[in-house]
Amino acid sequence: MNKRLNVKDLINVGLFSILILLFTFVGGMLGFIPVLMPMVPFVAGFLSGPVAMLFAAKIRKPGMLFIQQILTALVFVATGHGIWMIPTALLGGLLGEYVLKGGGYKSIERARLAFVVAVISGVGNWIPIFIAREKYIEQLVQQGYGRAYAEKMMSVLPVWSLGPIVLGGMMGTYLGCTLGIRILKKHFVKAGMVKEE
């Protein structure tokens, strides 16, 4: 099998990057209610999980998940979420690819685990909240959210909460991917990732 990405592979990467981003942004809307901000990664992971598993059925070559993670990071950076997404997406994408490779790009369990591990990519969104809190509050105020919103959001994001937030994102992604496996079982059977019962 040719392991080089072709035009069809890149179209799949682009299409699924857009779809995963769409569901991620829908989950992110929960953050308009400041006290619910810690739940955003869980909800975004749960909503994008089924789409991620449909993408997993198309992944047959190295690099597809990595490129999807980098494209997602670039969109987040372009929409004002900060440069930290780039290094964390590099790490999340590489770890996800490592997990996929361990299953020969044919294991549904490895695909689910790869997307769970790739949640690390999103940590870059949260880093400014925890290392530059005052600057982040001022940025929120300048963007029109208001000081009351910013302070309420920070009140539910103590410094120690980064770990639980990331674990919540991983749990949401795991559950969303599991739902996706059940809904999309026939696609995985066709792709040879699941045996028909």
Show unreliable segments. Answer: none
Q: Could you state the order of secondary-structure elements as H and E?
A: HHHHHHHHHH
Question: What is the radius of gyration?
Answer: 17 Å
* Average of pLDDT: 91
- The count of domains is 1
Discrete helix count? 10
Q: Strand share of the residues? A: under 5%
Classification by helices and strands:
mainly alpha
How many β-strand runs?
Answer: 0
The biggest beta sheet, please?
A: none
What spatial form do the alpha-carbon principal axes imply? elongated
Q: End-to-end distance, in Å? A: 27 Å
The share of residues in helices is over 70%
Task: Walk me through this protein's architecture.
With 197 residues, the chain is an all-alpha fold. The protein has one domain (7-190). It contains 10 helices and no strands. It has helices at residues 7-28, 40-56, 64-78, 85-102, 108-117, 123-131, 133-142, 147-155, 162-183, 185-190. α1 (7-28) crosses α3, α2 runs parallel beside α9 (162-183) and α4 (85-102) packs antiparallel against α5 (108-117). 40% of the residues are buried.
Which descriptors would you attach to this protein?
mainly alpha, elongated, 197 residues
In short:
By secondary structure, this protein is mostly helical. The protein is built from 10 helices and no strands. It has one domain.
Topology:
Blueprint: H1 7-28, H2 40-56, H3 64-78, H4 85-102, H5 108-117, H6 123-131, H7 133-142, H8 147-155, H9 162-183, H10 185-190
Helix pairs in contact: 1-2, 1-3, 2-5, 2-9, 3-4, 4-5, 5-9, 6-7, 7-8
Pfam families: Trep_Strep (PF09605)
Transmembrane segments: 12-33, 39-57, 69-91, 111-132, 153-175
Keywords: Membrane, Transmembrane, Transmembrane helix
